[in-house]
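Notes to self, Malonate decarboxylase acyl carrier protein:
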Amino acid sequence: MEKISLSLPATRTLQGRALAGVVGSGDMEALYVASTAATLEVTITTSIDNSQVRWQRLFERISELGSLPGGTLTIHDFGATPGVARIRIEQVFEEAQHA
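result:
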């Protein structure tokens, strides 16, 4: 298991909390808690060692295609592909937007 922490610039604000995915499903879950901070603090616990660069690049791509919200994002990853990870992250932000 590897634990990764990222601090990313945030350019939008959301409300509340949201959960996407199920950790026991074999891929990943993402829990987002909104705040008015100018950063998104991400904590990733993953079963894939040496994956920090992959996660950094994934968040760079998400940031390039849209804006990241302020708050905290906790991810429990158990081998999700980058595509599934991106879907879960986008789902959790979308759910928080409608909370």
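- Residues 2-97 form one domain.
- DSSP finds two helices and five strands in the chain.
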